[in-house]
């Protein structure tokens, strides 16, 4: 029974380690869900009790004597002596150390500014747990353990590496602690928002006497050092060795890299690498630093400069740059995701820390390979697997008989398989860390900035070649943060499918969001959004009214934009878009020409369903009260489902157009909800539009492109940070994009309101 419990605990720990590594490496989108966080916390909490129980049981069960008296008294006694095999004890200790390495690899430390509230220190409990495990291992009486001849030949070689994992545990924890402290005190990392805020104020003062132009601004990228700055009332400011703080003096600071210097670099110097792509990554890194000021709750109106705005607008106004613009902001958010939710950035606080981290990872991998090799030799030496986990010897007094060589008990395969499974998990996490250093954008920015600053590297053909290889390195499986997908949801499910999933009630009980359809963002959506963004520069944000006012047909639809809030307007236009799409599909089935490849149709339908998805899944990121928005959606959805459930009588209609017409009439007459009725009314107007189908889709695409930009500004920093942690959302990307072009709030809202959610946060 004791062996059974020990083996069960060992396997349970391996399963929990697999869950932790799986969530941390591949299930990032769900890592911060309440249920998965509960599983994660529970697994990490149970590690130490399980390890303590297993090692204590194994070490204390050596030389257990049991005397059994027979029916005839002492003359009929039987003695049983049991002891753990040496192989079992050593492999259990190895399993315990490997478990700690798994926990350390999945722990996250963050060096944020105090205003950001993102600090996550080194979990010193892991060091305490490692020390406790080491104590349990050392206190085990290895010299009293007995084993068969198959194991003794390799026992000494295994003992030599038995405690190597403890050295790796100490090295990993000390490394994280040192890197964290350096990053926290660094002007370029932990205290960077204070410097960026002060630096942008310096640029604003200098720009007051200079006309702004679309040339690249001197935004900071890398190279900030404490010796180049001075403290001021609201952060830090730059000064050179002579005390000057002009733009030209700052740009001449040794080692400091700014966007204007990077933009001037000759792309032909790079071998086999797109210079534009590398420069864009550096620009994304610079924008990431500005966005950190937003999360640090600085006054956003003091973060931007006219030069920055002119440069970014000149980039956005170029035709055919929609993919590049989206990639710029996506890379920026990936930097933010790394900084707030991974341990990678702190390794760049000193140039030699990545090298040390890689060395520790390689040492861990080497140890894993050696351990697997020894286990393999141990398990296959002689006749095969060792005979058992426990050795028992008994003696009978009445017959004076003893066992010949004793008897082996237990399942030795568990001793071999459990460490090997943990080693596989450790190898996965270590390879991921190595790939992060080689393929991450952090490495590319640091390497490229050092390359631009180092003329010796630039004149070396071999150096340029190797730098180009590293800059081209990509690993989408591990390094991609946003999959460029958007959720799709609809109030009107015209082709109802009964849910057949067995796990739907369980998903609801565990507070998992209902499964929504996720689709790749079509290029047409990006084109229409950037087109709407360009019109915003002069006219400001609107609830779709600006595009409607451009045509006479659109003027007649303006009544549908006069809702009590934004959410009801979204629902009215969403219902109308669904009805119009359904009607056009019915016409095409009956022989009318199809317009399936229409850019406007693709953009309108996808953005309409995405806004509906936001209402049901992320209402906290919309302008209206999140509870009101969600309740409104549920009420409209419930009313629509009730009406659609009674449409069975129309199935005998002769043509698809007749079915569609009956459906529209049924929704209009049978609905009790005002938003549903208005949506049906608007849908009829779109169907009856004299200018034709394409004009209607153009109006809808313009409306939805403006609407998604209108709802993007938000002061819910927590909601957007959680969206970034889950893998990203289109609305968060647009929120960051609008921030960089100087749009912090909607019309009739106080500019800069989004900068702070608590009194006194603005500076």
Automatic annotation (TrEMBL):
Alphabetic keyword roster: Membrane, Transmembrane, Transmembrane helix
Entry annotated with the keyword Repeat: no
Pfam families the record matches: DUF4220, DUF594
Signal peptide start-end: none
Domain DUF4220: 45-492
Residues that span the membrane, as ranges: 6-26, 38-58, 89-110, 122-140, 160-179, 351-375, 409-428
InterPro entries referenced in this protein's UniProt entry, alphabetically: DUF4220 (IPR025315), DUF594 (IPR007658)
Entry protein name: DUF4220 domain-containing protein
Originating organism: Digitaria exilis
Taxonomic placement: Eukaryota, Viridiplantae, Streptophyta, Embryophyta, Tracheophyta
């Amino acid at each position: 029974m004791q062996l059974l419990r020990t083996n069960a605990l060992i396997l349970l720990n391996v399963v929990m380690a697999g869950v932790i590594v799986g969530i941390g490496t591949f299930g990032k989108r769900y890592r911060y869900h309440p249920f998965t966080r509960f599983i994660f916390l529970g697994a990490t909490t149970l590690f130490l009790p399980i390890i303590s129980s297993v090692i204590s049981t194994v070490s204390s069960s050596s030389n257990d004597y049991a005397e059994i008296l027979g029916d005839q008294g002492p003359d009929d006694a039987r003695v049983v002596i049991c002891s753990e095999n040496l192989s079992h004890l050593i492999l259990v200790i190895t399993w315990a150390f490997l478990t700690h390495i798994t926990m350390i690899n999945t722990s996250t430390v963050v060096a944020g500014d105090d205003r950001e509230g993102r600090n996550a220190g080194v979990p010193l409990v892991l060091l305490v747990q490692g020390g406790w495990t080491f104590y349990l291992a050392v206190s085990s009486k290895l010299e009293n353990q007995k084993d068969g001849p198959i194991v003794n030949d390799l026992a000494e070689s295994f003992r030599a590496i038995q405690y190597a994992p403890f050295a790796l545990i100490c090295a990993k924890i000390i490394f994280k602690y040192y890197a964290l402290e350096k990053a926290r005190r660094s002007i370029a990392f932990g205290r960077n928002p204070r410097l960026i805020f002060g630096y942008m104020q310096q640029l604003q003062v200098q720009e007051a006497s200079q006309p702004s132009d679309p040339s690249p601004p001197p935004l900071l990228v890398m190279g900030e050092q404490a010796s180049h700055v001075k403290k001021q009332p609201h952060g830090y400011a730059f000064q050179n060795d002579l005390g000057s703080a002009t733009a030209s003096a700052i740009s001449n600071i040794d080692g400091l890299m700014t966007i204007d210097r990077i933009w001037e670099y000759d792309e032909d110097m790079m071998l086999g690498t797109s210079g534009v792509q590398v420069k864009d990554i550096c620009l994304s890194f610079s924008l990431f630093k500005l966005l950190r000021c937003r999360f640090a709750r600085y006054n956003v109106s003091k973060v931007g400069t006219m030069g920055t705005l002119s440069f970014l607008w000149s980039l956005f106004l170029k035709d055919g740059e929609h993919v590049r613009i989206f990639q710029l902001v996506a890379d920026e958010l990936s930097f933010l995701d790394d900084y707030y939710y991974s341990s990678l950035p702190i390794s760049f606080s000193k140039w030699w820390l990545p090298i040390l981290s890689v060395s520790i990872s390689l040492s861990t991998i080497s140890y894993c390979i050696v351990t697997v090799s020894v286990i393999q030799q141990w398990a296959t030496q002689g006749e095969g697997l060792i005979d058992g986990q426990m050795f028992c010897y008994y003696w009978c007094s009445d017959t004076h008989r003893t066992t010949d060589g004793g008897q082996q008990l237990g399942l030795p395969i568990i001793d071999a398989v459990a460490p090997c499974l943990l080693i596989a998990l450790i190898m996965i996490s270590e390879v991921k860390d190595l790939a992060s250093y080689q393929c991450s954008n952090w490495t590319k920015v640091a390497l490229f900035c050092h390359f631009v600053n180092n003329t010796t590297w630039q004149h070396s053909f071999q150096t340029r070649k190797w730098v180009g290889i590293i800059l081209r390195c990509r690993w989408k499986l591990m390094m991609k943060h946003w999959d460029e997908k958007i959720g799709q949801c609809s109030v009107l499910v015209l082709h109802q499918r009964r849910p057949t999933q067995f796990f739907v009630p369980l998903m609801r009980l565990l507070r998992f969001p209902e499964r929504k359809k996720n689709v790749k963002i079509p290029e047409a959506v990006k084109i229409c959004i950037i087109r709407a963004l360009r019109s915003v520069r002069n006219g400001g944000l609107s609830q779709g009214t600006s595009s409607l006012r451009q045509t006479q047909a659109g003027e007649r639809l303006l009544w549908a934009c006069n809702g009590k809030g934004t959410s009801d307007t979204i629902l009215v236009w969403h219902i109308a878009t669904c009805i119009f799409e359904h009607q056009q599909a019915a016409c095409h089935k009956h022989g009318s020409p199809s317009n399936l490849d229409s850019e406007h149709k693709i953009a309108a339908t996808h953005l309409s369903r995405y806004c509906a998805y936001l209402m049901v899944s992320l209402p906290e990121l919309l302008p209206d009260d999140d509870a009101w928005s969600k309740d409104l959606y549920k009420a409209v959805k419930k009313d629509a489902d009730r009406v659609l459930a009674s449409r069975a009588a129309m199935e005998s209609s002769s043509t698809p157009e007749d079915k569609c017409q009956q459906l529209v009439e049924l929704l209009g007459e049978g609905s009790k909800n005002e938003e549903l009725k208005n949506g049906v009314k608007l849908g009829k107007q779109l169907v009856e539009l004299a200018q034709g189908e394409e004009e209607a889709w153009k109006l809808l695409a313009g409306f939805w492109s403006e609407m998604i930009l209108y709802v993007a500004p938000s002061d819910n920093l927590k909601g957007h940070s959680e969206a970034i942690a889950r893998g990203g959302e289109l609305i968060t990307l647009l929120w960051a994009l609008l921030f960089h072009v100087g749009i912090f709030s909607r019309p009739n809202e106080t500019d800069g309101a989004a900068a702070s959610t608590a009194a006194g946060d603005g500076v």
